[in-house]
Amino acid sequence: LNKPIHADPGTSLSLEVTATDSGQPPLSARHVIVVTVDDVNDHTPVFDHTSYETSLLESTPVNDRFFVLSASDADLGVNGLVSYAITEGNAEDKFGVFPDGYMYVKSPLDREERDYYSLTVTASDKGDPPRSSVVPVVIHVIDENDNRPEFTNSTFSFHIRENEPPDSFVGKVAATDSDIGRNAELTFSLSNGKQDFAIDPKNGFI
Questions:
Q1: Measured distance CA(175)–CA(172) in Å, rounded
Q2: Which residue numbers delimit the Cadherin domain (predicted)?
């Protein structure tokens, strides 16, 4: 080359070459040569965002798609084909990513066990050698009301004197719920229909 070629990859350039002998008179022949400009893997995949953050319900079924990533590569052919992989933060194998960039749930989630994941996703092209880039992805797992309240004791036993006046304190029951927010707000009530006792619906005082 005398100078760099300013042509897009895939462009075909035609050259006419003439061969001339040194006889008298000289004789010559012409031949057309086609030169195709091949793509060089000189571009790295680029994500459309520098970071991603999303959330999903803890009950999201396995294999459900919940978020899409996108990276582009300016090369042509296989050099411009992009594939995705989760390369950090997925030790529990909770998430996967399809070839089209859609992330999916790979195994059941439980917010009570973990409510936050910080992943690294790598986009790689098919060049030889391949080029790649990474992006951070933060996933928040949203609570659902999937846990029953549990009393702190298996039984509660209280004693009162027979002549206690109305509004006397009898005892207190307590319960917990592994959910959060409104899903963990408890209300106490008496279900046996007896009118001899009353319970405070908020604090469990009988």
A1: 10
A2: 1-47, 48-151, 152-206
Assess whether pLDDT exceeds 90 at residue 2: no
> Is domain 145-205 given the CATH code 3.40.50.1820 in the classification?
no
Helices and strands (H and E) in the chain: how many = 0, 13
Q: Residue 206: what pLDDT?
A: 78
User: Does residue 192 carry a pLDDT above 80?
Assistant: no
φ, ψ (nearest 5 deg) of residue 105? -80, 125
Q: What residues contact 26, with CB distance under 8 A and at least 6 apart?
A: 20
Q: How far apart, in Å, are the Cα atoms of 14 and each of 4, 36, 42, 105, 135?
A: 16, 9, 25, 53, 43
> Please, where in the chain does CATH 2.60.40.60 lie?
46-142, 145-205
Burial (CB count within 10 angstroms: exposed 0-12, middle 13-18, buried 19+), residue 130: middle
Rounded to two decimals, the pTM is 0.68
Do you find a cis peptide bond into 4, omega within 30 degrees of 0? no
C-alpha angle 147-64-49 in degrees, rounded to nearest 5: 110
Q: What is the pLDDT of residue 54?
A: 96
Tell me how far CA of residue 56 lies from CA of 29, 103, 186, in angstroms: 72, 11, 25
